[in-house]
Design a protein that fits this description.
The chain has about 110 residues and is mainly α. About 65% of the residues lie in helices and about 0% in strands. About 5% of the residues are buried.
Length: about 110
Amino acid sequence: MSDTPEALQRRSLREQVEGMLPSWQSWYPSLFDAAQDLGLIRARVCSPSSLLLSNRHAVVQSEAVQAFKEQWSVEDEPDMPEHSMLLKRIQSAGHHHGKERLEQRRKGPAR
């Protein structure tokens, strides 16, 4: 079997280490130590914030959304103009205020 990059990626880490150093267990306490010395894996320096699960999930979520958009040719919705957002807030506040008035009418006059 040739050790092309594609072939190496299909093999498990154990298979890769054993292919390069069949007696690795007599030299290393763990598979990961052997793989590191053989250059199959390496540590990456990253910021502490990237270790937070919520941040990692946000990145995965955004990548999934982007892949979906690319696959199905979805375009982003245009941003809502400021006046439309203001109108929605006013309507929402008026609706809430109207509910308060309706509740006051149901209760009757305050004594």
